[in-house]
Design goal:
A hairpin with a 7-residue loop joins strand 11 and strand 12. The protein has 15 helices and 14 strands. It has an eight-stranded mixed sheet, sandwiched between helices. A four-stranded antiparallel sheet has the order 11-12-14-13, covered by helices on one side. It has a two-stranded antiparallel ribbon with strand order 1-2. The chain has three domains: 64 residues, Winged helix-like DNA-binding domain superfamily/Winged helix DNA-binding domain (Arc Repressor Mutant, subunit A, Orthogonal Bundle), CATH 1.10.10; 143 residues, Aspartate Aminotransferase, domain 1 (Alpha-Beta Complex), CATH 3.90.1150.10; 243 residues, Aspartate Aminotransferase, domain 2. The protein is α/β, with parallel strands linked by helices and 484 residues long.
């Protein structure tokens, strides 16, 4: 164990024993260095570890403080385990609800807790636009041939370089540039399945996955998913044994809406299970740069030896959403994906590709990401603390390890659509749980976006949501009593 890890463990144990009370200021970096006889660097590393564990928090111009721990009754959401293979194949129809939610945010200028998008003000869009404008001035005319798949060679090289720097061996020849991760997912799904086929997905799952299945006339089969470990591999094995599965679609890193980072060993087990049955898996890794830990997480691609992993990602959640630049690394299906890209949208515009490539090569992408990660980590703690404080007893929350969304389980009887409509009347949007499944098993869940700046108005909105949830729950209890 490294010295800073040992020191961090000692401080954490002292907090657990009550030596340091919640909200109490701990020794400054210099004081701790002198008091415990360790270097300033060791203290800084230890405090950073304690921040990542949720033990300490920093306050501007004030120092480090012991973070208040969750009150009794607020725990990580735990899926029902009574039945393992509870997945039910069904046609998908959630797009109308999603579109309605997005329109509400725009039309009502509401508090955007229901938004699936990060705060655009965090992006270096002015700098990227400067690159794009310079490129447009340099090139008076464009040759359509330059825009054809697989994409701009320099952007492909920069993407491959980032993977290589993080220990993922990537062949640049495998990368196909797409119009965002959504197109990458759609093309990958088209490459491995056909209308009428059944696709296994997590439950709950990100609704873009369900949209892709719906649009292509396929059927989704939902597999229980743990808020820490990810998709239930035993349940998936039962599904595979009982019916024909054309493909699997998952988000192993910072899954939307649960926010977990699937452990490496379970990623390996998932790839091995699917490989044994020659089932391709589409990996949505769009949040891969938004981790809260010390290192970028592994991907399913790390464990793929058969070319069955179709890895999809984009810059939309980490750099700029307006340019809609994503990519696919489709393994053995690379030729099909490139052909489908040509048939579906023909090209991805060159200027955004070159502008992003220039930014990656010349500007501080990693510095930008460190700032965003730190902000999201802090705001995740704030949002969690506010939900714990203001929501009714029996509320349970996820513990996101990256990304910018919190999954909230409301007490039974608090219908998320009732809460959605009541909140909208108050100028607040939320993501109702109905959007994350083809069944009504998440009717008392909501998803909250915490990427936007935390303000007194944000806190007031969370408080109002808690009040509305309590009112709806009390009304449901009264209605139930009247029926009986």
């Amino acid at each position: 164990m490294k010295l800073y890890e040992k020191f961090a463990d000692e401080i954490e144990e002292a907090v657990r024993r009550g030596v340091f009370a919640p909200g109490e200021r701990v020794a400054s970096v210099r004081q701790a260095s002198q008091r415990y006889g360790v270097s300033i660097k060791t203290v800084l590393h230890a405090y950073a570890v304690l921040e990542s564990r949720g033990i300490l928090e920093t306050r501007p111009q004030s120092g480090y403080f012991v973070r208040a721990q969750p009150r009794a009754g607020v725990v990580q959401a735990e899926p029902k385990r009574a039945r393992r293979a509870i997945a039910v194949a069904s046609e998908v129809d959630v797009s109308g609800l999603v579109l309605s939610t997005l329109r509400s945010i725009r039309a009502h200028d509401a508090v955007p807790f229901g938004s699936p998008y990060p705060d655009p003000e965090l992006f270096p869009w002015r700098r990227i636009n400067q690159y794009a404008n310079a490129i447009a001035r340099r090139r008076a005319s464009w040759n359509l041939i330059d825009d054809l798949p697989p994409g701009n060679p320099e952007l492909i090289r920069q993407i491959a370089r980032r993977y290589a720097e993080n220990g993922v061996a990537v062949d640049p020849e495998e990368i196909v540039i797409t119009v965002g991760a959504t197109e990458a997912i759609n093309l990958s799904l088209q490459a491995v399945a056909k209308p009428g086929d059944t696709v296994a997905v997590e439950s709950p799952t990100y609704y873009a996955m369900l949209h892709a299945i719906e649009r292509l006339g396929m059927r989704a089969i939902e597999v229980p998913t743990h808020p820490v470990d990810g998709i239930d591999i035993d349940a998936l094995a039962q599904v595979i044994a009982s019916r024909t599965i054309a493909a699997c679609m998952v988000m192993p890193n910072f899954q939307n809406p649960l926010g977990f980072q699937m452990p490496d060993e379970r990623k390996r087990q998932l790839v091995e299970l699917l490989g044994a049955h020659d089932i391709p898996v589409i990996e949505n890794d769009v949040y891969h740069e938004l981790y809260y830990g010390d290192a970028r997480p592994s991907t399913l691609k790390n464990f793929d030896t058969k070319g069955l992993v179709l890895h999809c990602a984009s810059f939309s959640k980490s750099l700029t959403a307006s340019y809609r630049i994503g990519w696919a690394m489709p393994g053995r299906y690379r030729a099909q994906v490139e052909k489908l890209k040509f048939l579906n949208t023909l090209t991805t515009p060159s200027v955004p590709q070159i502008a992003i490539a220039d930014y990656l090569r010349q500007d501080g992408y990693d510095r930008h990401l460190r700032r965003v990660r730190k902000l999201y980590r802090q705001q995740a703690r704030i949002m969690s603390a506010m939900v714990e404080r203001f929501f009714p007893a029996g509320t349970r929350i996820s513990a996101p390890q990256g990304g910018y969304v919190l999954w909230v389980e409301l007490p039974p009887g608090v219908d998320s659509m009732r809460l959605y409509r009541a909140a909208l009347e108050c100028g607040i949007t939320i993501g109702p749980g109905y959007m994350f499944s083809t069944r009504n098993v998440f009717s008392h869940y909501i998803r909250l976006n915490y990427s936007y700046p935390w303000t007194p108005a944000s806190e007031a909105a969370v408080q109002r949501l808690g009040e509305l949830a309590a009112e709806i729950g009390a009304r449901a209890q009264k209605e139930k009593g009247e029926r009986t």
